[in-house]
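Box 4.2: Ligand-aware structure prediction
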Amino acid sequence: MMKDMEKRLNKIFDETTEEELSLFKKAAEIIKAEGLVAFPTETVYGLGANALNENAVKKIYEAKGRPSDNPLILHVSGIEMAESLVHINETAKLLMNKFWPGPLSLVLKAKDIIPLSTRGGLSTAAIRMPDNRIALEIIRISNLPIAAPSANKSGRPSPTDAKTVRDDIGDSVELVIDGGKTLVGLESTVLDITGENPILLRPGAISKEEIEAVLNVTVLFSQDENIIKRSPGVRYRHYAPNIPLMLSDVENASKYASGKKWAWIGISEPKGTPNIKIIFLNTNEYAKELFRVLREIETTKVEVIIAEKPEQKGIGLALTDRLIKAAGN
Ligand code: AMP
Ligand code: MG
């Protein structure tokens, strides 16, 4: 492992109190015994299980109602653990050194140790090192890679706090660890680096531009059928609130509402008078709060959510991706 990463991790782990340590040990025991634990990462809450154990992984798919061909991301506590799972190339090394721990999942050729059920039957697997002390501690203590998709029922908005996890899938997990609200609020960037040019399979907090700056090559991002086929999860309906959602600019907001009770979410004041108005400080806050706010609006009498189309740069691209999916397009 890189020396500076090691130092940083030691500093992170120093913060863990005795009381927390016993909780994390309990979580690790559950993981080792094929059980499920929900825990925070910096992106959203994850539903974790031993990624190397088919029985454990099966429980994730059952709890979420997730299609079995939608592969899971393996969460690791460092580069050595990653090396035991996938074939690491030069591109991977550069990206890991720059962005790990962080919200970047890398798709690489899988080693046989990863069961096919974890990787949806594919020859590749996605791995990432989360930038969250609790997540890292559980992986480190269990000394196992943890498969952890978002801790929600398949198709629902991802949970960004522990209460939402309990409400959604609390019955299926042995332990939910509360680490407060997640920092990013959107799932990780997924990047396939098995071919000549990296392919962005899912936008996230680590942007295409940041990746290109490190690699000095063009990152492909396309809605092209062939690319969509490579990331099975992208096909399925996602992040969907129970109320219809539409993207709009400020000018047309009330027009889209067309007389229905409407909620506005965005960073600007809309034209017209929404029944509920949620204005975020900036695009980062919009991303961070989106999933929570969608679930909150569901509990009201609003009939349609009109969401401001974010700026098309940085986290705005990932946010737009989630909003388009929430709109069912
Ligand atoms: P989630 O667990 O809900 O964050 O979803 C994981 C995402 O990573 C899905 O969009 C998957 O399709 C994608 N993914 C995981 N493993 C692979 C893989 N081996 N190849 C392509 N995409 C993957
Ligand atoms: Mg998910």
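In the box above, the bound molecule is adenosine monophosphate. The pocket of adenosine monophosphate (ligand 1) is lined by residues 70-73, 107, 119, 122, 124-126, 149-150, 187, 190, 201-202, 230-234 (CB under 6 Å).
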